[in-house]
Amino acid sequence: MPVQFSTIHFVNRSPDLTLTIEAPIGSFLLTEPIARDAARDFTVNLADCPSTRLHVTSTSHPDFDQTFAIAPPDSGRPSYLKTLRVLYHVGDFEGVFEGSTEILG
Q1: Which residue of 5, 6, 29, 31 has the smallest Cβ count within 10 Å?
Q2: pLDDT per position in the chain (105 positions), as tens?
Q3: Is the full-model pTM beyond 0.85?
């Protein structure tokens, strides 16, 4: 059974910005404005997604990018993203993600 990448939780601790999400990297998912000190939950709902890229634009600072990815293993089953939580300060993406191997059965 596939592993579902369900949500991205993004907290903005910088001036107003626009967030663009690719999932997997190279595949556009969405673009949304996010106000200062706002938190947003984004539904991803993708199966077997190994990576995501977050791109932030703002009129108050330069653009910034951050990728989160799980590399293919040297042996065993591949792992995929399930959830991602990000706390953003200007240019700094503090992220924690959950992943899982494919579900057998």
Answers
A1: 31
A2: 899 999 999 999 999 999 999 999 999 999 999 999 999 999 999 999 999 999 999 999 999 999 999 998 899 899 999 999 999 999 999 999 999 998 776
A3: yes
